[in-house]
Structure formats: structure tokens, C-alpha cells
UniProtKB/TrEMBL annotation:
Coiled coil: none annotated. This is Uncharacterized protein. It comes from Laodelphax striatellus (Small brown planthopper). Residues 147-164 have a biased composition (Acidic residues). GO terms for biological process: negative regulation of biosynthetic process. It holds the Pfam family GFRP. Residues 93-164 are annotated as: Disordered.
């Protein structure tokens, strides 16, 4: 299957701590699970639970590993209120497609979890264009609130009529 769903508990509002991130069940692609450092456990979230692949770490780190492997973030969602569960959906490249699906190809590079040089250059191009579009589309996000307030005050002073 070309999609992977990651889920983690949101421990605090807007703060995701290092913790177990569920990245697959017992039928998940073992090559991919090894590539992202997932461990198969049977006692999460409670004893007797079905086997799940977990990664212990910060969600951003896991998403960065997946991006390096050529995955693309498709969607982010919060289940329940903001303190319960967060989900990320990522799309996989052809190298990590379900081996049981028609048309999947395997070779030594795919077994190692690496991507081709053309995929790597495409990924670098997407990253650089995303950085450019993010910085040009939302420049105010790079400034802190104090700087933004100062700029707003300066603009208001410039636009105010001079006393006569």
C-alpha cells in the first residue's frame, strides 16, 4: 500500500514530546520499519495488545527520516480534542510499495531502503522550492511578535497625518 499512517499521543497542547509513535502493524513492510528504526512490540498501549511497530523519538525526527526516504506528507489530523491523538498520513515512493501488489519491483537498493539518485534530486528540488514558497508566502511567521508589533507601529506613525 502506498500510504503510511503514523499516530502518537499529544501529551500537551501544541507540544509533542518524545514518545512512542505507532508506524505500522505486524504486517507492515519490514524493510521500511528497519529503515526508520521501528521496533515490533506486543504490549502497547496495554498488555495483550496486537503487535505494533513503534518508534521512540520526536515525531519531527520520524517525519524527516521518511522524507529522506522519499515520502511526502499528505495530511495531518488530530483525533478527539487536542490532548488525545495526532495522525500523519504520508505517501510512499515506488521503492516501498507493498511487495504483494502488482507491478512492484525489488532490487538491492530497495532492500537497503535507499532511493535512486533521480528520486534524491527530485526530493532536493521539492525541498528547496517548498522553502522558497514558504518564506515568500508567509514572511511574518519568521518574525517574533515584538518585531511585528514594532513594524505595525512604524507603519501607523507613517500613515498618521502630521499635526499642523
Amino acid at each position: 500500500m502506498p500510504y503510511l499512517i503514523l499516530t502518537s499521543q499529544a501529551k500537551l497542547v501544541n507540544t509533542y514530546v518524545c514518545g512512542p509513535i505507532v508506524v505500522g502493524d505486524k504486517n507492515a513492510d519490514p524493510k521500511l520499519m528497519r529503515a526508520i528504526g521501528a521496533k515490533l512490540v506486543t504490549n502497547y498501549p496495554a498488555c495483550g495488545s496486537p503487535p505494533l511497530h513503534l518508534v521512540y523519538g520526536h515525531p519531527r525526527g520520524v517525519l524527516e527520516k521518511l522524507e529522506e526516504l522519499g515520502f511526502t506528507l499528505i495530511d495531518t489530523s488530530v483525533a478527539g480534542d487536542c490532548r488525545e491523538c495526532i495522525l500523519w498520513t504520508v505517501h510512499s515512493p515506488a521503492g516501498f510499495a507493498d511487495p504483494n501488489s502488482k507491478g512492484s519491483q525489488t532490487n538491492e537498493d530497495e532492500d537497503k531502503g535507499s532511493i535512486s539518485s533521480s528520486q534524491r534530486s527530485s526530493l532536493k528540488e521539492r525541498r528547496s522550492s517548498a522553502k522558497k514558497s514558504t518564506s515568500s508566502a508567509r514572511p511574518s511567521l519568521e518574525k517574533n511578535n515584538f518585531e511585528e508589533e514594532q513594524e505595525n507601529e512604524e507603519i501607523a506613525e507613517e500613515q498618521a497625518p502630521e499635526p499642523s
